[in-house]
Amino acid sequence: MKTPLKITGLCALLSALPNPAVAQQPSVPERVAALKASLAASQIILRQYEWIETTVVSLKGDEKSRKQERCYYGADGGIQKVEVSASPEPQKKRGLRGKIIAKKKEELTDYMKQAVALVKTYVPPNPAKIQAAKDAGKVTIEVLEPGKRARLNFRDYEKAGDNLGVEVDLVNNRPLGVKVSTYLDDAKDAVLLDVRMGQLNDGTTYASDITLDAPAKKIQVAVENSGYRKMGK
Fold first, then answer.
1. Strands, E, within the chain: which ranges?
2. d(Cα 5, Cα 231) in Å, to the nearest integer?
3. Contact at 8 Å (CB) between 185 and 175?
4. Element (H, E) at 94
5. Alpha-carbon torsion 163, 178, 193, 84, what sign?
6. pTM here?
7. Are 45 and 202 in contact (CB under 8 A)?
8. Cβ atoms < 10 Å from Cβ of 135
9. For residue 198, what are the CA distances in angstroms to 185, 209, 224, 225?
10. Per-residue pLDDT tens for 7-34?
């Protein structure tokens, strides 16, 4: 008859002890500050590098274009690009069919320009915008693996209703990836971004693979950044 009392007492004791999983939960201010510091440090170091950017555009699952460019930071702090190779332009069609194809191509080109510009507003994440979301109370932490990985979600990061999610390594505060749900001019024209972060030998992080999906237009853009090397070498 004493066993139930012992079990009850043990349960009470365990409930009074601190939960390790809860105790290790990262706080928003600490993680936002660590993320900002990591992003800023990497952006400074990346200015010493050049790399090759490969961009592939697909429509309805069919590859439409492929281009490679050498990239580096210019004196003004902006990224400069020099074309290395590009898929050949298809032979132009004549007559009415040719005009229809040309118009569709022009519309697709304009859309892609908007999409690429949109990517630049999210990748790499801007420390100032991250801080603004934090100050507005629009940051939440989603623990993916206690003590190891978490995702910081920044609502209304660039536009009303969008979300920037940055997955971080909780041990060294290194960004592991970025997921963005946003849109172009109309909220119905949804755009999804999935970014995988790479790491150079010196620990610098960079966006190694970027995939943009525009379901409404059935367009996908895949960008791969590779071949990093210090300028002048």
1. 49-59, 62-73, 79-86, 139-145, 149-155, 163-169, 175-183, 190-199, 205-214, 219-230
2. 72
3. no
4. none
5. positive
6. 0.79
7. yes
8. 10
9. 31, 8, 11, 9
10. 344 344 334 344 444 335 568 888 899 9
